[in-house]
Amino acid sequence: MPRTRCCRCRPTPRPRPTTGWRASASTGWATCLLALVDPGQGTCTFAGAGHPPPVLLHPDAPAELVHVPTGPPLGTDLGGYEALTLPVRPGTVLLMYTDGLIEDRRRDIDSSLRRLTHLSLDLDGPLESVVDALLARLVHGTTEDDVTLLATRLRAP
Q: Residue ranges under compositional bias (Basic residues) (predicted)?
């Protein structure tokens, strides 16, 4: 089954790990978001450890912020994680990102998440175009934190 992925990074002057993890060398913890796609069942199972929530970009419906039950960051030894499984139709784009996309001193996170989920995007083209459009509309100038986007599209079996 063909799979399509796209990742774009916009680094900040100070490098940090940016591939789904946000690590703190001084404290020994990291945030993480796990998404396990089962194309045969048409589902995606999510689990979170202090990472920003994923977004499902639907080709024929509004974008959906996935309210993943949030567990503590990895390495804190604070306890359990819950999984959430949702149906995902072919053509849906799963978007995961670092907090640099939504955290900004000039805007609260809820406002940034609303902006992200209310964008009108053409999802029919290449994922690179979707990610480039997201970056162009949401990131302006220099950011205080790194910005990394990971997008994947579920194809029909």
A: 1-13
The verdict on residue 114 lying in a domain is: yes
* Location of structure tokens 């690590």: 23
Residue 75 lies in a domain: yes
What is the residue range of 132's domain? 29-153
Rounded to 5 degrees, what are φ and ψ at 136?
Answer: -65, -35
Share of the chain above pLDDT 70, in %: 80
CA distance 98 to 95: 10
What single-letter amino acid sits at 114?
R
Per-residue model confidence as pLDDT tens digits over 69-90: 989 998 888 878 999 999 999 9
Beta bridge partners of 150: 7, 96
Written as one letter, the residue type at 85 is T
Neighbours of 35 (CB within 10 A): 18
116-138 pLDDT, tens digit each: 888 888 888 899 999 998 888 88
